[in-house]
């Protein structure tokens, strides 16, 4: 077995735990987006006494930029999710997975802002704290890759072995 092949797969429980975590977060993001779409439908049903078609078109016209940004974020989220599955290096897979979770949650926050802008303004600082914490941990893990992932050469002794 070559040294390069061993760096592609993590030994231990880190990879299966991250895959379970990532799958759970992706399910949560999908459920949040579906739930917010449900709330949007309920807000349209409350306008049935009036003209529901007019209220729906007015809602989409007033929040057109929000819905456009939502679909752009969902496309980025889907692209990163597919890229996460295809990556073989565990550290980069985890980094891309965390970034895709953040884009999915931000898309859900955009839809929540249509239903309740006050609630989304309260949740945005929590999302930003999550963003900084996750990216700090992920970049720290990527930057501090183990020495065996560099082809078995210790970084301080790299010039000596050349």
Automatic annotation (TrEMBL):
<dbReference type="InterPro" id="IPR053258">
    <property type="entry name" value="Ca-permeable_cation_channel"/>
</dbReference>
<feature type="transmembrane region" description="Helical">
    <location>
        <begin position="62"/>
        <end position="80"/>
    </location>
</feature>
<keyword id="KW-0812">Transmembrane</keyword>
<feature type="transmembrane region" description="Helical">
    <location>
        <begin position="20"/>
        <end position="42"/>
    </location>
</feature>
<feature type="transmembrane region" description="Helical">
    <location>
        <begin position="92"/>
        <end position="112"/>
    </location>
</feature>
<protein>
    <submittedName>
        <fullName>RPB1a</fullName>
    </submittedName>
</protein>
<keyword id="KW-1133">Transmembrane helix</keyword>
<keyword id="KW-0472">Membrane</keyword>
<feature type="transmembrane region" description="Helical">
    <location>
        <begin position="118"/>
        <end position="139"/>
    </location>
</feature>
